[in-house]
């Protein structure tokens, strides 16, 4: 009896897989960007850069970038953000200096150069933009206390 149950269960697997695949193929999925993947959309019509600094929404939020970084090179060899924001150049470039946390290694030791864990700025910092929400959101900023 147990053998027939196991055999029947195994026989159902391909049927379930094929029916699931057929259902997925027939589903009408709309993209969040409102266009096909290969269709070019001018982003400046959707995301408008905001001049000046936007207020942060919560404590410890990474600051937003108040300028375009579209042409900035940030890779293993080069980080153009550091040409203005590194502590050695920020004063003469009139740019905000990186937080001291960016100069600490994993053990908390101070470094003279940016830590490798903080090198890729756009992992946390994004350009500020007046962009529509992708999904409904009920988030409220903190009161600032």
UniProtKB/TrEMBL annotation:
Subcellular location per UniProt equals: Periplasm
Residues making up the signal peptide according to the UniProt record: 1-24
- Alphabetized GO MF terms: metal ion binding
- What does its PTM field state? Binds 2 heme C groups per subunit.
Give the keywords, sorted.
Electron transport, Heme, Iron, Metal-binding, Periplasm, Signal, Transport
Q: Where does heme c 1 bind?
A: 67, 81, 84-85
Transmembrane among keywords: no
Q: Which GO terms describe its cellular component?
A: periplasmic space
GO terms (BP aspect): anaerobic respiration
Where is heme c 2 bound in this sequence? 102, 121, 124-125
**Subunit details for this protein?**
Component of the periplasmic nitrate reductase NapAB complex composed of NapA and NapB.
- Hey, which family's this protein in? Belongs to the NapB family.
Function recorded in the entry: Electron transfer subunit of the periplasmic nitrate reductase complex NapAB. Receives electrons from the membrane-anchored tetraheme c-type NapC protein and transfers these to NapA subunit, thus allowing electron flow between membrane and periplasm. Essential for periplasmic nitrate reduction with nitrate as the terminal electron acceptor.
Instruction: Provide the protein name.
Output: Periplasmic nitrate reductase, electron transfer subunit
* Source organism of this protein record: Ruegeria denitrificans
